[in-house]
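Exercise 3.2. Students should predict the tertiary structure of the chain below and write it as structure tokens, then compare their answer with the key that follows.

Predict this chain's 3D structure.
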Amino acid sequence: MKKLYKRPLRLAVYGKGGIGKSFVSANLSVLFAKDRRVIHVGCDPKGDSTRNLTAQNPPEPALGKLLDCAAPPESVSDLVRQGIRGVDCVEAGGPEPGEGCGGMGILKLFQFLTRTGFFKESDYQVQLFDVLGDVVCGGFVAPMRFAAPLTILVVVSEEVHSLFAANQVAKAVRRYADSGVSLAGLVLNRRDNLARVDHVGRFAEALGTTVIADLLRTPEVFDADVARKPVVVQEPTGLLAIEFHLLTERLREFEPEGSGTVTPLDSATFDALMFEAARP
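Answer key:
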């Protein structure tokens, strides 16, 4: 029997730039689309979140359409390009480098989605938002402001800077917790399969969460990127595909009400935890 969601699963994937958010997001969208209607929203001015979902036919950045006074979009369907396995794809887009705020496209898109009633009336059972970098300005925190109730997934590696970024995201989660924003856990996307990672688990525990998935670095990732496909499509029986299936099930079963309170670390506590991890 197919599992039914009590409400649409709204999932935002955050983390340090270049950590693998789009990689994780694309694979999750494909797996959720097996039995659910999915919209995958790239919240990045580069417009590359849906690259491996739409191959040679990427969606036109939404910002250009939203700023078109002559023929503005009327609904989200005007922004969608259908991707692999039926995943509907949207790219927020943004200004050219050096010409404006990177978060402008995201903020404009979420204002449009709110104004058109998307968050109240949409029949997408999974709404996934792949969000650029750390939570700093209003544009990048737009999913938390406009799309609650919202589940947050943070992608990290074993590197200190990725955990620092995760701690910054946790601060925003705590700020918007009363609005229905909750943290499902950390996804460890390893840079080095032989590196020590026990500190990542201790960091997650200190935040009040868990490492919900551990992704090894394998040649499958490069091969899938070259083929412009998610790894679960390119290598459906590989080790990473198995881990992504498990992650998808954990997110299906996640209950925000039982997720506990997020407790971001202050600077001294974070530094002490990392210093301890560096000791032989």
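Discussion points: The chain has one domain: 9-278. The beta strands are 9-15, 38-43, 81-82, 88-91, 126-131, 150-156, 181-189, 211-215.
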